[in-house]
Design goal:
This protein is α+β, with helices and mostly antiparallel strands. The strands form two sheets. A six-stranded antiparallel β-sheet has the order 1-2-3-9-4-7, with no helix packed on it. Strands 6-5-8 form a three-stranded antiparallel β-sheet, with no helix packed on it.
């Protein structure tokens, strides 16, 4: 990596750390308590006042559930696997888990917690969605139904039904989404078919 590329990657770490922490609804104190990294060090990392080191980035990557490559925005290394990058949309982070065009697409969503109940803005579009909550509580509004899904719960719906989702409380929520633009449904089989 050229020196200029290295400097660019290192200067982008601070804003990325702040964004990840805020998206997960964490304070510097909470991150310091979990990682053992001092609050002052975390603050200087986020502001660019301290150069990131491997020993500082490893616990942060773990608490934010991202790879080191994602923290430093490392360039692709020629690995044939698909390198999918998170995208921030309307205050939530969406990580595409599949890249093939057409068919069912898989995503992981991370939505920061909210201290006040949010007023939903229902949307409709073509497709079919299946969601599975990994952590936290997901508020799902489907037309007249206002539901809270807990970790381990799933829901499926036609996206032509007015819908909205967000964090149900002050804690972040993470969930998987299988979405078919043409209305394809995800089929889950409990056992193989008899031959």
């Amino acid at each position: 990596m050229a020196t200029r590329d290295l400097e660019t990657a290192l200067t982008s770490v601070g804003p990325r750390l702040r964004q990840l922490r805020e998206q997960r609804g964490l304070t510097l104190t909470e991150v310091a308590t979990t990682t053992g990294v001092a609050v002052s060090t975390l603050s200087r990392l986020e502001s660019g006042g301290r150069r990131p080191t491997l020993e500082l980035l490893l616990p942060l990557a773990e608490i934010y559930r991202v790879t080191l490559d994602e923290l430093v925005d490392a360039p692709p290394t020629g690995d044939p696997r698909v390198n999918l990058r998170p995208v921030s949309v309307h205050g939530m982070t969406m990580v595409p888990l599949s890249s093939r065009p057409g068919g069912i697409q898989a995503y992981k969503f991370v939505i920061p917690g909210r201290r006040r109940r949010q007023e939903p803005s229902l949307k409709t579009h073509e497709g079919y969605d299946w969601v599975y909550v990994l952590t936290g509580n997901l508020r799902l509004v489907l037309a007249d139904h206002d539901l809270v899904l807990k970790a381990g719960e799933a829901a499926e719906f036609d996206t032509r039904t007015p819908h909205w989702f967000g964090a149900a409380d002050e804690h972040p929520v993470e969930f998987l989404s299988l979405f078919g633009k043409q209305g394809e449904k995800a089929h889950v089989r409990a056992r193989p078919r008899a031959t």
